Amino acid sequence: MAGHRRTVATGQVRRTTGRRVRQVRQHLPAGEAEQNARRKARDGAKAVAYQRIRRTSDPMQQLDAARDYVRSAAAKYSHGPALNRLVNAMLEIGDEIFRDGTRRRRS
Predict the structure, then answer these.
(1) Residue 8: beta bridge partners?
(2) Taking 80 as the threshold, does the pLDDT of residue 3 lie above it?
(3) pLDDT above 80 for 27
(4) Which pLDDT value is given to residue 12?
(5) What distance, in Å, lies between the first and last C-alpha atoms of the chain?
(6) Per-residue pLDDT tens for 37-91?
(7) At 4, is the pLDDT very low, low, confident or very high (cuts 50, 70, 90)?
(8) Most distant CA pair in the chain: distance in Å?
(9) Exposure of 47 by Cβ count < 10 A (0-12 exposed, 13-18 middle, 19+ buried)?
(10) 100 HSE (CA, 13 A, CB side)
C-alpha cells in the first residue's frame, strides 16, 4: 500500500460505523521499517531496470540499464568493496571481448 512504510496489512478487515471496509494494519517491529523501505526501493528500481532490459535486444542498452540500476543504489547507500568487484569483473569481460571477439566490419 502506498505510503505505509511502517505498517503491514494483517489480512483482516473491519467495518466502520458507516459500513466501509478498512484493512487492519499493524506496526512493524523496531528496525524492520528501514529494512522494509530498502526492500521496496530495491524492488521498484529493479523492476524498472528489468523493464528497460526486456524492451531492447541491444546488449549495450541492456548494460546501460543495469548500470543505471547500480548507480541508483550507489547514490542512496554506501557500497564498500562491491563496486570494486563490479569494475574488475567488467574489465575482465572487456579483456575477453578484445581477446576472443570477432571484429566488426565497418560499413
Answers:
(1) 26
(2) no
(3) yes
(4) 87
(5) 53
(6) 888 899 999 999 999 999 999 999 999 999 999 999 999 988 889 999 999 999 9
(7) low
(8) 75
(9) exposed
(10) 6
Grid coordinates representing 16 are 466502520
Give the three cell numbers for residue 84.
570494486
As a whole number of angstroms, the distance between CA 65 and CA 103 comes to 25
Closest Cα partner for 68 from 100, 46, 91, 87?
46
Long-range contacts of residues 40-49, Cβ cutoff 8 Å, at least 24 apart: 40/5, 41/76, 42/73, 45/69, 45/72, 45/73
Alpha-carbon gap, residue 83 to 88, rounded angstroms: 9
Residue 107 has what pLDDT? 65
The span from the CA of 24 to the CA of 46, in Å, is: 29
Grid cell at residue 66: 543495469
For 31-56, give the DSSP string: THHHHHHHHHHHHHHHHHHHHHHHH-
